[in-house]
Amino acid sequence: MIRYKFANETDQEFASTLKKRVNDYFKDNNLSKNANKQMIIKTVIAMSVYLVPFFIMIFGNITQIPLLFALWIAMGFGKCFIGTSVMHDTLHGSYSKNKTVNFLMGISVLVLGIAPSIWKIQHNVLHHTYTNIEHADEDIQPRFVLRFTPNQPRRWFHRYQHIYSVFFYGLLTLVWVVIKDFFKLIDYKKKGLVKSGASYYLHHLEIVGRKIIYFAVFLALPIYILPIPVWMTVVMFITMHFVTGVMLSLIFQTAHVIPSSDFIEQEEEKIERNFSVHQILTTSNYAMNNKFLTWCIGGLNFQVEHHLFPSICHVHYASLSKIVQQTTKEFNLPYHSHHTFGAAINSHFKQLKDLGRG
Q1: Across all residues in the chain, what is the average pLDDT?
Q2: pLDDT of 221-232, one tens digit each?
Q3: Using CB atoms within 10 A of its CB, is residue 269 exposed (0-12), middle (13-18) or buried (19+)?
């Protein structure tokens, strides 16, 4: 993997002006860049949306199949809610500077069944550093059946990817909790992103331990307790993951894989852009006026602000967007945004359709 470097000597005035204005905002309003009381309340609600249906299922002596399906689907929404609104901030280090709080928030990662160390490499390091750069940003990495950028090979069946992509999006978290962490650990070791020796084997043990806990609690326990066939419980478990996978894919893909985004492919290590400008050109917002959606998906409809300031908690993104919009306008830079989430989804599937045909 090429270790790209940005030409931060360009557009320095824009980057420094934006950074100063954001810092002044927190200083002038005497605000912390981390979570506030509202965030703590949201954390409790998010965990409840995921765990309460599970407890009802386990202890409620429920035998009605439709009701059990509904509870698993509710858990799918809850899993997405935790992932976007709690885990995401926690693993970015923007939830709190308090080690005890961060340790407790680690529970949000444990109940989702993923390895935080692997997630941080793929998301925090590769995606956030090399956004939409071919062979570096794994979020746009071709999956053979899906073509995400004009730089990737086109196959005949990509003509239909805007139709079948939802199925593969639904497999996102299921594949992750079953095998992805293991394959990524091996891959990151080869790329030098994970150290060899004892550290590598400790990573393996951590992943195995987390998987055992996750599958014992959220699959084996329901199989043992629920008075329905094993295969039906497995189908419901997969359904939960499918709901989460589709939701997470649409939340994230609509910010980067759309017609307005730049896609970079080059062999040279030097990217001829300032890092902040690169984030603006490869990222888009949506539904910025929809406070309910903003609350539900952890402010990830403000992806521009998130990519510019990932260490700041999402509760501040709406306010920061006004500063970013003002500054980009002054420096004649674009600020991409769709008015609604639906418009962003349509834009994403239009991009998939166009990429499949040419």
Answers
A1: 94
A2: 999 999 999 999
A3: exposed
